[in-house]
Amino acid sequence: MLLGFFLLPSVFFLDIGVCMAVQSELRITTIKQEPYTMTKGSQLEGFCMDLLSEVAKKLSFKYKVQLVKDGSYGRQDENGNWNGMIGEVVRKEADLAIAPLTLTAAREKAVGMTKPFMQTGISILLRKDISEEAGFFDFLTPFSLETWIGVLLAYVATAACIFVTARLSPCEWSQAQSEKNRFSFLYSLWYTAGALTLQGVGHHPRAPSGRVICSSWWLFSVVLLACYFSNLSSSKTSESSRLTVKGFEDLANQNMIEYGCLAGSSTLAFFKNSNNPVYRRIYEHMERTKSFVSSMDEGVRRVKEGNYAFIGESVSLDLAVARHCELVRAHEVVGMRGYSIATALGSPIIKNLSVAILQLSEAGELAYLRSKWWASSCFADKVKPSALQSHSLKGMFLVLSLGLGLGMLLAVLELTFQSRKRAAEQQKSCCAVLNEELSLRLRNGRANKPQENVEKEKA
Protein backbone atom coordinates (compact mmCIF):
# COMPACT_ATOMS: atom_id res chain seq x y z
CA MET A 1 0.00 0.00 0.00
CA LEU A 2 2.78 2.39 0.86
CA LEU A 3 4.50 1.65 -2.45
CA GLY A 4 1.26 2.31 -4.32
CA PHE A 5 0.83 5.58 -2.46
CA PHE A 6 4.14 6.84 -3.89
CA LEU A 7 3.73 5.33 -7.39
CA LEU A 8 0.27 6.64 -8.24
CA PRO A 9 1.19 10.36 -8.05
CA SER A 10 4.31 9.71 -10.07
CA VAL A 11 2.37 8.04 -12.86
CA PHE A 12 -0.26 10.78 -12.70
CA PHE A 13 2.29 13.58 -13.10
CA LEU A 14 4.12 11.65 -15.82
CA ASP A 15 0.90 11.32 -17.84
CA ILE A 16 0.25 15.01 -17.37
CA GLY A 17 3.78 15.77 -18.59
CA VAL A 18 3.27 13.66 -21.69
CA CYS A 19 -0.05 15.34 -22.47
CA MET A 20 1.40 18.79 -21.94
CA ALA A 21 4.40 17.96 -24.11
CA VAL A 22 2.23 16.70 -26.93
CA GLN A 23 -0.47 19.36 -26.78
CA SER A 24 1.76 22.44 -26.33
CA GLU A 25 3.25 24.27 -29.32
CA LEU A 26 6.51 22.60 -30.20
CA ARG A 27 9.49 24.47 -31.60
CA ILE A 28 10.72 22.76 -34.75
CA THR A 29 14.12 23.43 -36.29
CA THR A 30 14.90 22.47 -39.86
CA ILE A 31 17.25 23.32 -42.70
CA LYS A 32 16.58 24.39 -46.26
CA GLN A 33 17.36 21.57 -48.65
CA GLU A 34 15.42 20.51 -51.71
CA PRO A 35 13.02 18.73 -51.59
CA TYR A 36 12.88 18.25 -47.82
CA THR A 37 12.29 21.89 -46.88
CA MET A 38 11.91 24.74 -49.35
CA THR A 39 10.52 28.25 -49.19
CA LYS A 40 7.41 29.17 -51.13
CA GLY A 41 6.68 32.80 -50.47
CA SER A 42 6.55 33.17 -46.72
CA GLN A 43 5.70 29.49 -46.20
CA LEU A 44 7.80 26.34 -46.04
CA GLU A 45 7.03 23.26 -48.08
CA GLY A 46 8.63 19.96 -48.92
CA PHE A 47 8.86 16.33 -47.86
CA CYS A 48 9.73 17.10 -44.22
CA MET A 49 6.97 19.70 -43.94
CA ASP A 50 4.40 17.20 -45.22
CA LEU A 51 5.77 14.56 -42.86
CA LEU A 52 5.60 16.98 -39.94
CA SER A 53 2.01 17.83 -40.80
CA GLU A 54 0.99 14.14 -40.89
CA VAL A 55 2.76 13.38 -37.60
CA ALA A 56 1.17 16.44 -35.93
CA LYS A 57 -2.28 15.23 -36.98
CA LYS A 58 -1.68 11.82 -35.46
CA LEU A 59 -0.27 13.16 -32.17
CA SER A 60 -2.49 16.28 -32.03
CA PHE A 61 0.15 18.89 -31.33
CA LYS A 62 0.77 22.38 -32.64
CA TYR A 63 4.15 23.49 -33.87
CA LYS A 64 6.18 26.43 -35.06
CA VAL A 65 8.94 25.88 -37.61
CA GLN A 66 12.17 27.88 -37.68
CA LEU A 67 15.25 27.51 -39.86
CA VAL A 68 18.48 26.57 -38.13
CA LYS A 69 20.55 29.66 -37.44
CA ASP A 70 23.98 28.47 -38.60
CA GLY A 71 22.69 26.46 -41.57
CA SER A 72 24.29 23.19 -40.38
CA TYR A 73 22.95 19.74 -39.69
CA GLY A 74 24.95 19.09 -36.57
CA ARG A 75 28.60 18.32 -35.95
CA GLN A 76 30.56 17.90 -32.74
CA ASP A 77 33.73 19.93 -32.28
CA GLU A 78 36.86 18.98 -30.36
CA ASN A 79 35.38 20.31 -27.11
CA GLY A 80 32.29 18.13 -27.45
CA ASN A 81 29.94 20.97 -28.37
CA TRP A 82 27.39 20.51 -31.13
CA ASN A 83 26.41 23.02 -33.79
CA GLY A 84 23.53 23.06 -36.26
CA MET A 85 20.15 21.50 -35.60
CA ILE A 86 21.57 18.93 -33.19
CA GLY A 87 23.11 21.74 -31.16
CA GLU A 88 19.80 23.63 -30.96
CA VAL A 89 18.03 20.52 -29.68
CA VAL A 90 20.80 19.86 -27.15
CA ARG A 91 20.65 23.47 -25.88
CA LYS A 92 16.82 23.30 -25.64
CA GLU A 93 16.45 25.99 -28.28
CA ALA A 94 14.22 23.60 -30.24
CA ASP A 95 12.05 20.65 -29.25
CA LEU A 96 12.38 18.72 -32.52
CA ALA A 97 14.73 18.72 -35.49
CA ILE A 98 13.13 17.39 -38.66
CA ALA A 99 15.38 17.16 -41.70
CA PRO A 100 17.43 14.53 -43.54
CA LEU A 101 19.35 13.86 -40.32
CA THR A 102 21.37 10.67 -40.56
CA LEU A 103 21.04 8.34 -37.59
CA THR A 104 24.58 7.91 -36.23
CA ALA A 105 26.04 6.65 -32.97
CA ALA A 106 27.46 10.06 -32.06
CA ARG A 107 24.13 11.82 -32.57
CA GLU A 108 22.28 9.07 -30.70
CA LYS A 109 24.43 9.83 -27.65
CA ALA A 110 23.62 13.55 -27.77
CA VAL A 111 19.91 13.51 -28.69
CA GLY A 112 17.03 11.09 -29.00
CA MET A 113 16.43 9.76 -32.52
CA THR A 114 13.17 8.25 -33.76
CA LYS A 115 12.68 5.29 -36.05
CA PRO A 116 13.97 6.22 -39.52
CA PHE A 117 11.41 7.73 -41.86
CA MET A 118 13.61 7.14 -44.91
CA GLN A 119 16.37 4.65 -45.74
CA THR A 120 19.44 5.79 -47.61
CA GLY A 121 23.02 4.82 -48.27
CA ILE A 122 26.23 6.11 -49.82
CA SER A 123 26.62 6.16 -53.59
CA ILE A 124 28.35 8.08 -56.39
CA LEU A 125 26.98 10.85 -58.62
CA LEU A 126 28.52 11.01 -62.11
CA ARG A 127 28.03 12.51 -65.51
CA LYS A 128 26.52 10.08 -67.99
CA ASP A 129 29.48 10.31 -70.36
CA ILE A 130 31.74 9.08 -67.54
CA SER A 131 29.54 6.25 -66.34
CA GLU A 132 28.16 4.88 -69.60
CA GLU A 133 29.93 2.44 -71.86
CA ALA A 134 30.30 2.94 -75.60
CA GLY A 135 27.31 1.77 -77.62
CA PHE A 136 27.07 -0.21 -80.84
CA PHE A 137 25.89 2.78 -82.86
CA ASP A 138 28.28 5.41 -81.54
CA PHE A 139 29.55 5.90 -85.10
CA LEU A 140 26.34 7.86 -85.69
CA THR A 141 26.99 10.31 -82.87
CA PRO A 142 29.14 12.80 -84.87
CA PHE A 143 25.88 14.08 -86.39
CA SER A 144 22.57 14.71 -84.70
CA LEU A 145 19.37 13.09 -85.87
CA GLU A 146 18.31 16.29 -87.63
CA THR A 147 21.59 16.35 -89.55
CA TRP A 148 21.25 12.74 -90.70
CA ILE A 149 17.70 13.41 -91.89
CA GLY A 150 18.92 16.50 -93.76
CA VAL A 151 21.71 14.49 -95.46
CA LEU A 152 19.22 11.81 -96.53
CA LEU A 153 16.84 14.39 -97.98
CA ALA A 154 19.74 16.12 -99.76
CA TYR A 155 20.85 12.79 -101.24
CA VAL A 156 17.39 11.93 -102.61
CA ALA A 157 16.84 15.49 -103.89
CA THR A 158 20.20 15.51 -105.69
CA ALA A 159 19.54 12.13 -107.33
CA ALA A 160 16.10 13.34 -108.45
CA CYS A 161 17.58 16.54 -109.91
CA ILE A 162 20.22 14.57 -111.84
CA PHE A 163 17.51 12.28 -113.18
CA VAL A 164 15.30 15.19 -114.29
CA THR A 165 18.11 17.25 -115.85
CA ALA A 166 19.39 14.19 -117.72
CA ARG A 167 15.96 13.89 -119.32
CA LEU A 168 15.38 17.58 -119.98
CA SER A 169 18.79 18.64 -121.27
CA PRO A 170 19.30 17.98 -125.01
CA CYS A 171 23.05 18.09 -124.34
CA GLU A 172 22.63 14.94 -122.27
CA TRP A 173 19.85 13.25 -124.23
CA SER A 174 19.82 14.63 -127.73
CA GLN A 175 17.66 12.02 -129.49
CA ALA A 176 14.81 11.30 -127.10
CA GLN A 177 12.91 9.26 -129.75
CA SER A 178 15.67 6.79 -130.59
CA GLU A 179 18.39 7.10 -127.94
CA LYS A 180 18.22 5.41 -124.56
CA ASN A 181 18.64 7.66 -121.55
CA ARG A 182 21.60 6.53 -119.45
CA PHE A 183 20.46 8.23 -116.24
CA SER A 184 17.51 6.24 -114.93
CA PHE A 185 16.36 7.08 -111.43
CA LEU A 186 18.08 4.00 -109.95
CA TYR A 187 21.32 4.89 -111.74
CA SER A 188 21.00 8.47 -110.47
CA LEU A 189 20.72 7.15 -106.91
CA TRP A 190 23.76 4.93 -107.45
CA TYR A 191 25.75 7.76 -109.04
CA THR A 192 24.92 10.14 -106.14
CA ALA A 193 25.90 7.50 -103.55
CA GLY A 194 29.20 6.91 -105.36
CA ALA A 195 29.95 10.62 -105.38
CA LEU A 196 29.11 10.84 -101.66
CA THR A 197 31.74 8.19 -100.90
CA LEU A 198 34.23 9.83 -103.30
CA GLN A 199 34.10 6.84 -105.65
CA GLY A 200 33.65 7.26 -109.41
CA VAL A 201 30.80 5.22 -110.87
CA GLY A 202 29.96 4.72 -114.54
CA HIS A 203 28.97 7.55 -116.82
CA HIS A 204 29.23 11.18 -115.78
CA PRO A 205 26.84 13.91 -116.96
CA ARG A 206 27.79 15.65 -120.18
CA ALA A 207 25.35 18.54 -119.99
CA PRO A 208 26.39 21.78 -118.21
CA SER A 209 23.25 21.59 -116.07
CA GLY A 210 24.12 18.09 -114.85
CA ARG A 211 27.71 19.08 -114.21
CA VAL A 212 26.60 22.05 -112.09
CA ILE A 213 24.45 19.76 -109.95
CA CYS A 214 27.23 17.18 -109.63
CA SER A 215 29.80 19.82 -108.73
CA SER A 216 27.52 21.15 -105.99
CA TRP A 217 27.01 17.63 -104.66
CA TRP A 218 30.75 16.89 -104.75
CA LEU A 219 31.51 20.03 -102.78
CA PHE A 220 28.77 19.19 -100.30
CA SER A 221 30.13 15.63 -99.92
CA VAL A 222 33.70 16.76 -99.30
CA VAL A 223 32.67 19.20 -96.57
CA LEU A 224 30.23 16.69 -95.06
CA LEU A 225 32.85 13.93 -94.87
CA ALA A 226 35.44 16.33 -93.45
CA CYS A 227 33.04 17.38 -90.68
CA TYR A 228 32.04 13.77 -89.99
CA PHE A 229 35.58 12.42 -89.64
CA SER A 230 36.70 15.43 -87.63
CA ASN A 231 33.83 15.03 -85.19
CA LEU A 232 34.24 11.25 -85.09
CA SER A 233 37.93 11.63 -84.29
CA SER A 234 37.12 14.04 -81.47
CA SER A 235 34.50 11.70 -80.01
CA LYS A 236 36.85 8.71 -80.23
CA THR A 237 39.57 10.70 -78.53
CA SER A 238 37.20 11.53 -75.68
CA GLU A 239 36.08 7.90 -75.56
CA SER A 240 39.67 6.73 -75.22
CA SER A 241 39.94 8.86 -72.09
CA ARG A 242 36.40 8.07 -70.94
CA LEU A 243 36.24 6.19 -67.69
CA THR A 244 33.57 3.65 -66.86
CA VAL A 245 32.81 3.93 -63.14
CA LYS A 246 30.32 1.46 -61.75
CA GLY A 247 31.22 1.48 -58.07
CA PHE A 248 33.66 2.52 -55.37
CA GLU A 249 36.35 0.06 -56.40
CA ASP A 250 36.40 1.51 -59.92
CA LEU A 251 36.59 4.98 -58.41
CA ALA A 252 39.49 4.08 -56.12
CA ASN A 253 41.46 2.37 -58.90
CA GLN A 254 41.62 5.40 -61.17
CA ASN A 255 43.23 8.82 -61.03
CA MET A 256 41.66 10.49 -64.07
CA ILE A 257 38.72 12.14 -62.35
CA GLU A 258 38.55 13.87 -58.99
CA TYR A 259 36.05 12.83 -56.35
CA GLY A 260 34.94 14.11 -52.97
CA CYS A 261 32.09 14.39 -50.51
CA LEU A 262 30.47 16.91 -48.19
CA ALA A 263 32.94 18.28 -45.63
CA GLY A 264 32.22 17.15 -42.07
CA SER A 265 29.38 14.88 -43.17
CA SER A 266 28.48 11.39 -41.94
CA THR A 267 29.57 10.17 -45.38
CA LEU A 268 33.10 11.36 -44.69
CA ALA A 269 32.99 9.75 -41.24
CA PHE A 270 31.96 6.45 -42.84
CA PHE A 271 35.07 6.34 -45.03
CA LYS A 272 37.30 7.67 -42.25
CA ASN A 273 36.27 5.00 -39.75
CA SER A 274 36.06 2.09 -42.19
CA ASN A 275 38.57 -0.77 -42.16
CA ASN A 276 37.78 -1.68 -45.77
CA PRO A 277 40.98 -1.04 -47.78
CA VAL A 278 39.03 0.36 -50.75
CA TYR A 279 37.14 2.83 -48.55
CA ARG A 280 40.33 3.78 -46.75
CA ARG A 281 42.03 4.59 -50.06
CA ILE A 282 39.06 6.76 -51.01
CA TYR A 283 39.24 8.64 -47.71
CA GLU A 284 43.02 9.10 -47.95
CA HIS A 285 42.67 10.43 -51.49
CA MET A 286 39.97 12.93 -50.49
CA GLU A 287 41.99 14.02 -47.45
CA ARG A 288 45.15 14.40 -49.50
CA THR A 289 43.55 16.38 -52.35
CA LYS A 290 41.09 18.31 -50.14
CA SER A 291 38.39 17.64 -52.71
CA PHE A 292 35.52 18.29 -50.30
CA VAL A 293 32.54 20.51 -51.07
CA SER A 294 30.68 22.77 -48.69
CA SER A 295 27.16 21.97 -49.91
CA MET A 296 25.15 19.52 -51.96
CA ASP A 297 24.56 22.14 -54.64
CA GLU A 298 28.28 22.68 -55.03
CA GLY A 299 28.83 18.95 -55.45
CA VAL A 300 26.17 18.72 -58.15
CA ARG A 301 27.60 21.75 -59.93
CA ARG A 302 31.09 20.28 -60.02
CA VAL A 303 29.78 16.99 -61.38
CA LYS A 304 27.92 18.82 -64.16
CA GLU A 305 31.08 20.72 -65.06
CA GLY A 306 32.82 17.39 -65.61
CA ASN A 307 35.84 15.46 -64.32
CA TYR A 308 34.38 15.16 -60.83
CA ALA A 309 32.42 12.48 -58.99
CA PHE A 310 30.42 13.40 -55.90
CA ILE A 311 30.02 10.87 -53.10
CA GLY A 312 26.87 11.38 -51.07
CA GLU A 313 23.71 9.87 -49.73
CA SER A 314 21.78 7.96 -52.37
CA VAL A 315 18.46 9.68 -51.68
CA SER A 316 19.95 13.12 -52.29
CA LEU A 317 21.76 11.87 -55.37
CA ASP A 318 18.50 10.44 -56.75
CA LEU A 319 17.00 13.91 -56.47
CA ALA A 320 19.92 15.40 -58.40
CA VAL A 321 19.45 12.79 -61.14
CA ALA A 322 15.72 13.61 -61.30
CA ARG A 323 16.48 17.32 -61.72
CA HIS A 324 19.54 17.13 -63.99
CA CYS A 325 19.14 14.73 -66.89
CA GLU A 326 22.85 14.60 -67.75
CA LEU A 327 23.66 13.02 -64.37
CA VAL A 328 23.37 9.43 -63.21
CA ARG A 329 23.86 7.61 -59.90
CA ALA A 330 26.05 4.51 -59.65
CA HIS A 331 24.16 1.32 -58.82
CA GLU A 332 26.36 0.43 -55.86
CA VAL A 333 25.07 1.64 -52.50
CA VAL A 334 27.01 1.04 -49.28
CA GLY A 335 26.65 2.01 -45.64
CA MET A 336 22.88 1.82 -45.40
CA ARG A 337 21.47 4.18 -42.80
CA GLY A 338 18.26 6.07 -42.06
CA TYR A 339 16.97 9.62 -41.64
CA SER A 340 15.33 10.30 -38.27
CA ILE A 341 13.67 13.06 -36.29
CA ALA A 342 15.81 14.33 -33.40
CA THR A 343 14.47 15.19 -29.96
CA ALA A 344 16.05 16.03 -26.64
CA LEU A 345 17.42 13.11 -24.61
CA GLY A 346 14.68 11.63 -22.48
CA SER A 347 11.89 13.44 -24.34
CA PRO A 348 8.52 11.83 -23.51
CA ILE A 349 7.20 12.05 -27.10
CA ILE A 350 9.97 10.18 -28.90
CA LYS A 351 8.15 6.84 -28.73
CA ASN A 352 4.92 8.38 -29.99
CA LEU A 353 6.83 9.93 -32.89
CA SER A 354 8.36 6.57 -33.79
CA VAL A 355 4.96 4.89 -33.70
CA ALA A 356 3.46 7.60 -35.91
CA ILE A 357 6.31 7.18 -38.45
CA LEU A 358 5.76 3.41 -38.54
CA GLN A 359 2.03 3.91 -39.06
CA LEU A 360 2.66 6.29 -41.96
CA SER A 361 5.09 3.82 -43.49
CA GLU A 362 2.65 0.90 -43.19
CA ALA A 363 -0.14 3.01 -44.72
CA GLY A 364 2.01 3.88 -47.73
CA GLU A 365 2.06 7.61 -46.92
CA LEU A 366 5.85 7.82 -46.85
CA ALA A 367 6.09 6.12 -50.23
CA TYR A 368 3.55 8.58 -51.63
CA LEU A 369 5.50 11.57 -50.30
CA ARG A 370 8.69 10.14 -51.80
CA SER A 371 7.10 9.82 -55.25
CA LYS A 372 5.57 13.30 -54.91
CA TRP A 373 8.77 15.18 -54.15
CA TRP A 374 11.21 13.04 -56.15
CA ALA A 375 9.28 13.20 -59.42
CA SER A 376 11.69 13.24 -62.35
CA SER A 377 11.67 16.02 -64.93
CA CYS A 378 13.67 13.96 -67.44
CA PHE A 379 11.47 12.52 -70.18
CA ALA A 380 14.07 11.52 -72.76
CA ASP A 381 17.78 11.29 -73.19
CA LYS A 382 19.15 14.42 -74.70
CA VAL A 383 21.34 14.35 -77.78
CA LYS A 384 25.01 14.11 -76.87
CA PRO A 385 26.71 17.49 -76.98
CA SER A 386 29.33 16.11 -79.37
CA ALA A 387 26.72 15.60 -82.07
CA LEU A 388 26.99 18.15 -84.88
CA GLN A 389 23.67 19.94 -85.23
CA SER A 390 22.06 20.56 -88.59
CA HIS A 391 22.46 24.34 -88.27
CA SER A 392 26.25 23.83 -88.22
CA LEU A 393 26.04 22.71 -91.87
CA LYS A 394 23.30 25.09 -92.96
CA GLY A 395 25.75 26.95 -95.20
CA MET A 396 26.56 23.81 -97.18
CA PHE A 397 22.89 22.87 -97.42
CA LEU A 398 22.27 26.34 -98.83
CA VAL A 399 25.09 25.98 -101.40
CA LEU A 400 23.74 22.60 -102.46
CA SER A 401 20.22 23.99 -102.81
CA LEU A 402 21.48 26.84 -104.99
CA GLY A 403 23.44 24.37 -107.12
CA LEU A 404 20.41 22.14 -107.62
CA GLY A 405 18.25 25.11 -108.51
CA LEU A 406 20.82 26.48 -110.95
CA GLY A 407 21.23 23.09 -112.59
CA MET A 408 17.48 22.67 -113.07
CA LEU A 409 17.25 26.19 -114.51
CA LEU A 410 20.09 25.49 -116.96
CA ALA A 411 18.39 22.26 -118.07
CA VAL A 412 15.18 24.15 -118.84
CA LEU A 413 17.13 26.85 -120.70
CA GLU A 414 19.02 24.22 -122.71
CA LEU A 415 15.77 22.54 -123.72
CA THR A 416 14.17 25.91 -124.54
CA PHE A 417 17.11 26.92 -126.72
CA GLN A 418 16.98 23.58 -128.56
CA SER A 419 13.20 23.92 -129.04
CA ARG A 420 13.61 27.38 -130.56
CA LYS A 421 16.08 26.03 -133.09
CA ARG A 422 13.77 23.17 -134.05
CA ALA A 423 10.77 25.49 -134.16
CA ALA A 424 12.62 27.69 -136.65
CA GLU A 425 13.58 24.67 -138.75
CA GLN A 426 10.06 23.13 -138.70
CA GLN A 427 8.34 26.54 -138.90
CA LYS A 428 6.29 25.85 -135.77
CA SER A 429 5.72 27.87 -132.67
CA CYS A 430 8.34 27.53 -129.96
CA CYS A 431 5.75 26.66 -127.31
CA ALA A 432 4.36 23.80 -129.40
CA VAL A 433 7.79 22.29 -129.97
CA LEU A 434 8.69 22.77 -126.29
CA ASN A 435 5.51 20.99 -125.20
CA GLU A 436 6.24 18.10 -127.57
CA GLU A 437 9.77 17.79 -126.23
CA LEU A 438 8.60 17.86 -122.62
CA SER A 439 5.90 15.28 -123.31
CA LEU A 440 8.37 13.01 -125.07
CA ARG A 441 11.12 13.30 -122.46
CA LEU A 442 8.99 13.03 -119.33
CA ARG A 443 6.67 10.18 -120.37
CA ASN A 444 7.22 7.15 -118.15
CA GLY A 445 8.82 4.19 -119.90
CA ARG A 446 8.08 5.29 -123.49
CA ALA A 447 10.81 7.80 -124.05
CA ASN A 448 13.48 5.14 -123.87
CA LYS A 449 11.96 3.08 -126.71
CA PRO A 450 12.98 3.53 -130.34
CA GLN A 451 10.63 5.53 -132.49
CA GLU A 452 9.70 2.59 -134.72
CA ASN A 453 8.51 0.60 -131.71
CA VAL A 454 6.37 3.53 -130.62
CA GLU A 455 4.80 3.77 -134.08
CA LYS A 456 4.06 0.02 -134.07
CA GLU A 457 2.32 0.33 -130.71
CA LYS A 458 0.26 3.23 -132.03
CA ALA A 459 -0.74 1.17 -135.05
What does this 3D model show about the protein?
It is a single chain. The protein is 53% helix and 13% strand. It has helices at 2-23, 47-59, 84-90, 105-110, 128-131, 145-168, 185-196, 208-240, 248-252, 266-273, 277-289, 296-305, 314-323, 350-362, 365-373, 394-426, 430-442, 451-458, and strands spanning 26-30, 38-40, 43-45, 63-67, 96-102, 112-113, 118-127, 258-261, 308-313, 327-329, 334-343. The strands form 2 sheets. Strands 1, 4, 5, 6, 7, 8, 9, 10 and 11 form a 9-stranded mixed β-sheet that branches. A two-stranded antiparallel sheet has the order 2-3. Helix 10 (266-273) crosses helix 11. The termini are far apart.
Count of alpha and pi helical runs:
18
By helix and strand content, what is the structural category?
A: alpha/beta
Order of helices and strands: HEEEHEHEHEEHHHHHEHHHEHEEHHHHH
Helix content: 40-55%
What number is the mean pLDDT?
A: 80
Measured between the Cα atoms of the first and last residue, the distance is: 135 Å
Integer-rounded radius of gyration: 38 Å
Question: What percent of residues are in strands?
Answer: 5-15%
Question: Stretches where pLDDT falls below 50 for ≥5 residues?
Answer: 1-23, 238-242, 380-386, 444-459
Label the overall shape.
elongated
Care to count the β-strands?
11
Largest sheet: 9 strands, mixed
**Multimeric state:** single chain
Q: Descriptors for this entry?
A:
disordered N terminus, single chain, 18 helices, alpha/beta, two-stranded antiparallel sheet, disordered C terminus, 459 residues
